[in-house]
Amino acid sequence: MTAQSLVPLIQLHDVWKTYVMGEEKLDVLRGVTLTINKGEFVAILGPSGSGKSTLMNQLGLLDVPTKGKITLEGRDLTTLSENEMALVRGKTIGFIFQQFNLIPTLTAVENVMLPTLFQGIAEEERVVRGRKLLTMVGLDHRMDHKPGQLSGGQQQRVAIARSLVNDPSIILADEPTGNLDSISGAQIFEMLIHLHRDEHKTVILITHDEELAHHAQRIAYMKDGRVDRIEEKATKNSSRKRPRAE
Amino acid sequence: MLKDFFKLSLQEIRHRRMRSYLTLTGIIIGIAAVVSLISLGQGLQNAIAGQFASLGNDKLFISAKGNSFNPGLSIDAVWIMDKDLEIVRRTSGVTLATGFVTTTAAIEYNDQARYFMVYGESTDPDERALLGESNNYKLASGRVLDKGDTHKVTIGSAYQDETLFGKSIGLGNTIIVKGIQFKVVGIMEKTGSPPDDQAVGMPIDTYEELFETNGALGMIVAQTQVGEDPVEVASEITTALRHSRNLKEGNEDFTIQTPQEMAAIFSSILDIVQIVLLGIAGISLLVGGVNVMNTMYTSVLERTRTIGLMKAVGAQKHHILTLFLIESGIYGLVGGIIGVGIGVGIAKLVELVFILVTGPSFLSVEISWVLIFGTLLFSFVVGCISGVAPALRAAKLHPVDGLRYE
Ligand SMILES: Nc1ncnc2c1ncn2[C@@H]1O[C@H](COP(=O)(O)OP(=O)(O)OP(=O)(O)O)[C@@H](O)[C@H]1O
Ligand SMILES: [Mg+2]
User: Fold this and answer.
1) Which one of B257, B289, B319 terminates a domain?
2) Is B244 found in the same domain as B125?
3) pLDDT in the model for residue B373
4) What pTM did the predictor assign?
5) Would you call B309 and A63 a contact, using CB atoms and an 8 Å cutoff?
6) Going by CA atoms, what residue is nearest to atom 9 of ligand 1?
């Protein structure tokens, strides 16, 4: 696969999300059409309230659009049952949230292992994966610490390890550095770049930080529930990317 | 996978230590109540059945109506008389019959007076033996009352205790009953029933003189012939007594009971008592269950974000449902185990107190494995059922709603 041969992975076609609150109707997404290609690094940029997180919920199968169609590798996702959605989510999508969303009563390694629990993976295998990933994010000395005993940056690294534990092809990160200081934020961002460049994951980064967004190959600008424009980038990140041997 | 779910639930329970203890306490109280009441009730049932079984089923007890358990105590009551005893003796199928009469009278000793039961019994050895069998009176030391004994009595085992009169009463001592002196010639064995153990026995003739009974009896005990149906004999006696007392059929002022009938009455009273107690225990268990439900609802609410996260990372409905059901099931099971332990402890303690107070072998608590495992299962089920509604709520939670929850 080269940067030129684009294979569509996720396609959104005229996706609407409308919240009904009493008498009022709020169109948060107003006809989003967007294609995310396999192995690319896309940033979704936009002001607060423009519907970025709502869009991520649709992309991540956390929510069903009010209207429109979403396909994953050509498969229509809008007809899936709740449990089928959970299954697809668990296997193919890794989430990284601004709030980390670690479970406070579990240790770092247990948090990392959590998603494997719902995939029926054997215990030894799960432990091996958890330890390996925590080591990869540089937390081999914090395996049995609870989230409360970790810094924000460390917690987000645990969350990254967790997002990778089922070896998903897509990483969805919603403002992953939003709650971090600049140094921790930079570390986390480096990891996302690494996942894209070296692990060939499809990374979708949601942010309102222009500078971060410019490291991506494409930037989708959101405004008032729509993708306003898409900017193709030839960043150092993507230019550095060499074509793999077929 | 289930193992991991157990681990997760246990961690959660341990995390909310205080609330978990309180929740457990609710279940423990309910289960302990159920176990102790059932085993004590069963023990009591067995004890009473045993007592009646030792009477044998060839005896009939004839007493005035409404008078069978406190003969001689009511003033305006109808009485069974001496001449009734003669009629019973003459009825075919009866081999032996004897009268028995009791009252409460002042007993004086060591310059102290207290009221206890005094009874009159036949001095005929066979009749005395029949009565002894029915009342469970056995001689421990000294001798039984003889023909010609006038100012002699036998006393229950309780009089050997110094607490009654400040001084133990033994063979050869003289006590005063209704102002008249009597010499103690025999001491009875401990029966376990305090009124019996504090009773003073004297020859029935002496009793009649002392209490001016004019031939009134509290009860007649009749023994039926081997091979005769006690129920048949009872109906013969009924007919004979009805004639002599000039009564119409259906208007009898006396009753004839067989030991089986008396056992059945006792047992049905006990059944009612047991049902009432079990009802109370059941209510406390219900409260325990509601308590578990409350805890689980709180737990689900508190962990809304966690549930949302779990769903985001691939948990399906049944995963979340299982997780919370295990949690409430653990409350049921652990509460059940501790509750059963405490319940058995309470039952054994009560048994011990009974043994200390009334002597051995009256109440023997029965703790069956069926009861233990049945209760554990029940407790687990109560825990699970209490968790169903909260767990369903958790399972239905939308991942986005969970993650957005503050
Ligand atoms: N469940 C909901 N019910 C009602 N309104 C909602 C709901 N979720 C989101 N909204 C509204 O949708 C709009 C977009 O929300 P969204 O979270 O997608 O914005 P965002 O672009 O991610 O903003 P930010 O950069 O602040 O995270 C907001 O006005 C928000 O109030
Ligand atoms: Mg957002």
Assistant:
1) B257
2) yes
3) 92
4) 0.74
5) no
6) A54
